[in-house]
Every structure is written in C-alpha cells, then in structure tokens.
Task: structure prediction
Amino acid sequence: MIKGLIAKEILVLVKNNKIQFLCLLMFMVLGVFMGSPAYIMFIPFLFPMILKQGLTVDENSKWDKYSACFPVDRKTIVSSKYIVMLFGSLLASVMALVSFILINLVNKDKALSVNDILVYLAASTSVSLIIPSLMYPFDFKYGTAKGRLIYFIITGIAVAGLSSAFVGADVISVISRFTQPLIIASVFTAAMVVFIVSWFISARIYEAREI
Result:
C-alpha cells in the first residue's frame, strides 16, 4: 500500500509544480554558465516549497477523509511523505552534483575542487532535509496556511546563516574550514537526526488529529 501512496505523492508533486521545476532548471543553467555555485544552492531551498505543495493539495482536496476509506494507518501515510522527502533531497543533491560537474567542464577558470563540491553537496543535502523536517510537524498540526509562515522563517534563517558565513570573507578559506570528513559526516548525521525526529513527531500528531 505504501508504494501506491508514494506514487500518489510523486504524481501530485509533478502535476502541481511544473513552474517550480522549471525554476530549478533555470538556477542550474544560471549557475553553470555563470560559474556560480550560489545559484545552484537555490535548488535545496526550493525543494521544500515543492514538497509543501503536496500537503496543500491534500488539505484542499480533503484527502484526509478520503484516505480513511483505505486499509492503511495514518503512520503509513506520514511515512510515504517522508520517504518522498528523502527522494527529493536525493534529487536535489544529484542536480547540484551534475551542475558542479558542468561548471568544471564549461568554466574551467572557475573549476571547483573535490573538497569544494563535497562541502556544497553536504550543505545541499542537509538544507533539503532539515527545512521540510522542521516544517512538516507544523503543517500537520496547524495546517499548511499557518505552516507557510514557518517555512519562510526557517528558510530566512538558513539563508541568513549561510550568507553570513561568506559575506566579507574569502570563500575559499570559509569552505576549507568545512572540508574535514568528520565535520561533513557530522552535518549529514545532524540532518538525519532532525529528519527522524520530525518523522516521529509528525506521525504522532497525525495519529492524534481528528478528521
């Protein structure tokens, strides 16, 4: 049954986010031809907005009431959304990796080292996991309309945090601070911990919610 739920989530996201996916491609093209990873790093920030659209469609179509007719528990429904979140994070990382490789091929004077690419990939994967993980419990608890405010707050904090790390400093020197394997592994671990805790909280909230 969960395969059907995952397929449903993917179909809803693809059908309702065509413009957003075009925006992702636009940032990829801009990043590659301008040799700027900054444009590519917009990709993980946009993916949570795409994922959020799935929850909005469910809410507007009264999917909660419809799903109650199926022989599937609420925890499985929540799990399908989090599995799709993992797929989205993986897709964001693949798109970023392809973009970085193309930068090295198209703009050899702005080529990125392996260490630089690893750092950007760690940041991309973490952002595309942590933002929706922080957002989903609020969406399940208060609805997507109120949860949208949480999305903008979390995204604003994340953008400000990343920007402050680079503004007024040499980018290469900043990146070099995060090239240690232990630090990169810690970032991934932290993202996965937030993801798992969020999964558990969202399942508990959804199970207790009246439909």
User: Anything to note?
Assistant: The chain has a mean pLDDT of 82.
